[in-house]
């Protein structure tokens, strides 16, 4: 797969590469892990928050949402917006809102994401959370006698259930019980890492997961595939666990050194060039390794937790792993026949509109009465083209998510999600092993983009 470039990145200059672990260095089996998260949230809503038993019977349908959507907590809605925050699609619970209803609720068609009533669906964890939110809204509307909390409180308690599943270790415990059910083993990733190492790049892992869990996943995904190293601790110069990102990038937090044999920790003053740690901060890594800012590339999967803060605070170069990308690119290829059809129909429509304007020009400029019959014929033509257009658009959208269409597009514009990637990631890809087709000395350069005035 291709690595996509937003901003020039010269790999020759990169001296250290830092990796987030979960969903970046280590891939999860998406379906199984989302199902697990969904089930845990349901359990907690019933057990801890006393929700009706009907909640336990809900079934996970991952297609009901995509990453990048926005939740309107006041109204119980899921919204898809463009990078300019313009609303393109909206659902109330599981019911699609038509244009009129959208107009009524969101005058002006824009949402202000600074408003606390909106929550964004940005992490991989947030997909089951958003699906369950839509289903709960639907359940509440259909069962007023069950006294569900209002839409806002539903969201709050759902988020609480999600946080609790992370905090109390219930998700991680399930992974621990059957690693192969949830975690992908990928020899190509290890191959890529060993190659980067050959080119004298320092490799760092910076994860918010604790040491036990980090060890579990690295033992399973790295060590069995190593060819030039014996153990993952030889491959990675530094492994920072429980890193508390994004604070890792901004605050001066203390490092603890972990004894790999016992897992016991002790205070340490560094230098932080090799080893296994808990906590710590980016500034100490930079200082002790004599590198800074642009010499370091960091790869993560979470725009807010991984990328945004470090870009602002440390000026490291950034790469984003977007797991939906592979499928999205495949679908674009399949959709090309419809895209040509849509372009042709749009060209036809524009031509008819020009002809219509010419008819009216006679009335306005020459004061000749316009021929009503001719005008009507043109309008009929437009109507006919519009019907064909909406059919072709629907066919094309069907190749993507059946409810929400593309992840990276909202109509003619980029989606908010795609906008974020463009803004914060220097390069992006669907998985780390996509580096295998590129030399570790590659000069990544963005393609020149055509501006509207250059297209004439
Ligand atoms: Mg992650």
Write out the CATH superfamily name of the largest domain: HAD superfamily/HAD-like
Spatial ordering of strands, largest sheet? 1-18-15-14-3-9-10-13-11-12
Domain count: the total is 3
Rough shape? globular
Which CATH first-tier class of the largest domain would you pick? Alpha Beta
Residues in helix, %: 40-55%
Strand and helix map with partners:
Blueprint: E1 4-5, E2 9-10, E3 16-19, H1 30-47, E4 70-72, E5 77-81, E6 87-92, E7 95-96, H2 99-105, E8 118-120, H3 126-142, H4 151-167, H5 170-177, H6 179-182, H7 187-198, E9 202-206, H8 211-221, H9 232-235, E10 238-241, H10 247-250, E11 255-258, E12 265-267, E13 275-279, H11 282-289, E14 296-300, H12 303-313, E15 317-321, H13 325-366, H14 372-398, E16 409-410, E17 413-414, H15 416-424, E18 427-429, E19 443-444
Parallel strand pairs: 3-9, 3-14, 9-10, 10-13, 14-15, 15-18
Antiparallel strand pairs: 1-18, 2-19, 4-5, 4-8, 5-6, 6-7, 11-12, 11-13, 16-17
Helix pairs in contact: 1-3, 1-4, 1-5, 3-4, 13-14
The structure holds magnesium ion.
């Amino acid at each position: 797969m291709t690595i996509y470039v937003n901003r020039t990145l010269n790999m020759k200059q990169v001296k250290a590469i830092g990796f987030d672990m979960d969903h970046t260095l280590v891939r999860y089996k998406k379906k199984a892990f989302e199902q697990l998260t969904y089930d845990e949230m349901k359990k907690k809503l019933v057990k801890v928050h006393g929700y009706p038993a009907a909640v336990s019977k809900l079934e996970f349908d991952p297609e009901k949402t995509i990453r990048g959507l926005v939740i309107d907590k006041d109204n119980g809605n899921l919204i898809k917006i463009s990078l300019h925050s313009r609303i393109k699609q909206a659902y109330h619970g599981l019911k699609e809102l038509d244009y009129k209803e959208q107009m009524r609720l969101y005058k002006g068609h824009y949402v202000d994401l600074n408003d606390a009533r909106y929550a964004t669906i940005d992490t991989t964890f947030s997909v089951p959370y958003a699906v369950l939110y839509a289903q709960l809204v639907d359940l509440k509307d259909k069962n007023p006698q069950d006294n569900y909390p209002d839409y806002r409180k539903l969201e709050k308690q759902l988020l609480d259930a999600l946080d609790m599943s992370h905090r109390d270790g219930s998700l991680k415990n399930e992974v621990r019980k059957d690693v192969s059910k949830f975690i992908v083993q990928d020899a190509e990733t290890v191959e890529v890492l060993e190659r980067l190492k050959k080119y004298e790049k320092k490799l760092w892992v910076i994860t918010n997961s604790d040491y036990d869990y980090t060890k579990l996943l690295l033992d399973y995904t790295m060590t069995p595939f190593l060819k030039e190293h014996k153990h993952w601790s030889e491959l990675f110069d530094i492994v920072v666990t429980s890193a508390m990102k994004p604070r890792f990038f901004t605050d001066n937090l203390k490092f603890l050194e972990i004894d790999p044999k016992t897992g016991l920790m002790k205070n340490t003053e560094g230098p932080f060039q090799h080893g296994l740690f808990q906590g710590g901060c980016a500034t100490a890594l930079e200082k002790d390794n004599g590198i800074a800012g642009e010499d370091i590339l960091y790869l993560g999967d979470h725009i807010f937790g991984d990328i945004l803060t470090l870009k602002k605070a440390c000026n490291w170069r950034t790469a984003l792993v977007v797991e939906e990308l592979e499928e999205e690119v495949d679908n674009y290829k399949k959709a090309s026949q419809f895209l040509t059809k849509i372009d042709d129909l749009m060209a036809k429509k524009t031509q008819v509109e020009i002809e219509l304007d010419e008819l009216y020009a006679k009335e306005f400029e020459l004061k000749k009465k316009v021929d009503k019959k001719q005008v009507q014929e043109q309008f009929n033509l437009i109507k006919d083209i519009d019907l064909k257009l909406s059919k072709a658009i629907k066919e094309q959208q069907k190749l993507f998510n059946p409810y929400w269409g593309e992840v990276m597009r909202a109509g003619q514009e980029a989606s908010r999600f795609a906008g974020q990637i463009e803004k914060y990631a220097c390069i992006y890809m669907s998985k780390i092993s996509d580096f295998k087709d590129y030399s570790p000395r590659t000069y990544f350069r963005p393609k020149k983009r055509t501006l509207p005035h250059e297209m004439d």
